[in-house]
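Sequence only, no structure available. Ideas?
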Amino acid sequence: MTSKVKSRRIWGWIAGVAGVLILACTLLILPYFLTGTASAAIIKIPREATSANLTDSLTKYFGSDYAARTGRLFRTMVKDPSSRYGAYDIPEGSSPVEAARILARGTQTQYTLTINGVREFLPFADRIAAKFDFSGDDLRAALADADLMKSYGLTTEQAPSLFLNDTYYLYWTDTPRQLIEKVGANYRRVWNEERTAKAKALGLTPAEVMVLASIVDEESNQISEKGRIGRLYINRLNSHMRLQADPTVRYALHDFTIKRVTGAHLQAPGPYNTYRVYGLPPGPIRTTSVPTIDAILNSEPSSDLYMCAREDFSGFHNFASDYETHMANARRYQKALDALGISRSRTAPTDSITSE
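Reply:
I predicted one. Tokens follow.
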């Protein structure tokens, strides 16, 4: 065998081995770049996370092979997984390389918390807490911090007023206090000097306007008449009349399914039943919005003391400054109910407001 032949064989052997090695490396490396997730998922790294915790989380959503590759790459970038405590969005189609980079960078995914007309806020705290790494009890404890609430001009009963109807951007790792500080910053922006001055001109504090607005929101969905309803209640407060607002009775009974308030309902005990107590309730009966607040603050003076749902069931109300006119309005409404076969569940008390 000539030296040339031997040389070709040697180089052929070398080329074959190199090809096998390249193919093997390709088969090993390509999955790190080409294997993509079938769907998006939020991967949460706990406060005291270990590599095993991270692998378990990745396996839950993406399978064991993907988790092993991602975890292997992540460990080359970050030695202590707990240093990346947080929640991270892994988009659909992400390769293990991309997922590992997202986790290693430590840039958390923002959560959106949308508040819209929440009744009985303290029980709702459990639903808020489900988005974060704390419990509903943790959030309720923070809201019960009298000194913290005082810094916003609120009592602990008025604490839900901080959560104006809005969308808030937060992180899974935020503590209850950090959550309160973020929604509280929005509350302070809303209650600027101009709005505070308008509230004072009405003889109210911002906290009292929030309570009043919560009742107004329960009374009507019509933004065009919310200011007038608010002014009506202010007139009743100034006249030392009970508010006699049906929504406060439902709140006192913890039953928002009540369609028509009866005489028996009016006996509900507690400070929230404005048929029994004078003045505003100690706290809001639902979360409210800036448009309702502004409608009250910018409302025109009136002599209204009563209101009754219109007989056309349009969702609007007839207003009156005297009881006789109010009763005439109420009779028309009751007649419309009779025509529909809806029974009269109660006779209005002497100075009541018939809002339904």
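DSSP finds 14 helices and six strands in the chain.
Hope that gets you unstuck.
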